Amino acid sequence: MEGIDTKRWNSYGRVRSRRLTDLQRKLWSVLLPSVSIDSFSDLESNTQTYRDIFVEVGFGHGEHIAQLAAQSADTLFVGCEPFVNGVSSLLTKIDALDIKNIKIFRGDARLLISEIPDGALSGAFILFPDPWPKRKHIRRRFIQKDTIAMIHRKLKESGVLRMATDHPAYQIWIKELLAQYTKLFKVNFSDSANRPSEQSWPITRYERKAAGDILYVELVKIGE
Ligand SMILES: C[S@@+](CC[C@H](N)C(=O)[O-])C[C@H]1O[C@@H](n2cnc3c(N)ncnc32)[C@H](O)[C@@H]1O
């Protein structure tokens, strides 16, 4: 399809699965150019308008970011997602709910986050990241020491990082990793029986399909 560059980043995963509907194709050519960014510097004028900036890594079909953005018009949400059908789903929600405070980065969230000035980010979300269960693929997991350290640097004091996964091995991986960060973050774990409120933490498509127990993690930055 013209105008869609699916080769700009090797995501290790699928970048497109379904044909887009006519409405989605229209939104891709009419709406996407005004909401899409290629780098954090494209947000310059927006950073003065909005009090807080939040980033969602791998927003999938956009349920979480769209609901939060619709609830908080004074906050800017930047969604990162290379998956074409996911971007199309989010465009449909932005259009239907007339959302003005979402920008979309169609690439590797690490590139976007690395460009954010230190201490400028109010929060980040990494919900149901691909678990890469095979041992030889573990380095592909998004949640790594380097990524957590980078997000910590970018967060403001009291800034928040939320993560969730239903994958048992990824849950252990996250808990082990975070044991090294107790001086830098206040760490709070919840499980499916004590799920955070849907209003503050909207449910994603992946979460609805999740079979096992879910680990919800909220980190609040407390130190440098
Ligand atoms: C398992 S899906 C979860 C989607 C959504 N968060 C949910 O809960 O429904 C993981 C998503 O992360 C995206 N993704 C993987 N690596 C990424 C990266 N480095 N930057 C941005 N998105 C990424 C994938 O394209 C995929 O859509």
Overview of the structural elements:
- The protein is globular and about 45 Å long.
- The protein has a single domain (22-221), classed as Rossmann fold, CATH 3.40.50.
- The chain starts with 21 loop residues before the first helix and ends with a strand.
- Helix content is 33%, strand content 22%.
- Mean pLDDT is 92; it is low at 1-9.
- It is of the alpha/beta class.
- Helix 1 (22-30) crosses helix 5 (84-96).
- Strands 1-4-3-2-5-6-8-7 form an eight-stranded mixed beta sheet, with helices on both faces.
In CATH, the homologous superfamily goes by the name Vaccinia Virus protein VP39
**What is the class in the CATH system?**
Alpha Beta
What does the average pLDDT come to?
92
Our measurement of the CA-to-CA distance between the termini, rounded to an integer number of angstroms, reads 46 Å
Biggest pleated sheet = 8 strands, mixed
Q: Can you tell me the CATH topology? A: Rossmann fold
Radius of gyration based on Cα positions:
17 Å
Q: Helix segment count? A: 9
Count of the separate structural domains: 1
CATH architecture classification: 3-Layer(aba) Sandwich
Helix proportion range: 25-40%
Structural class: alpha/beta
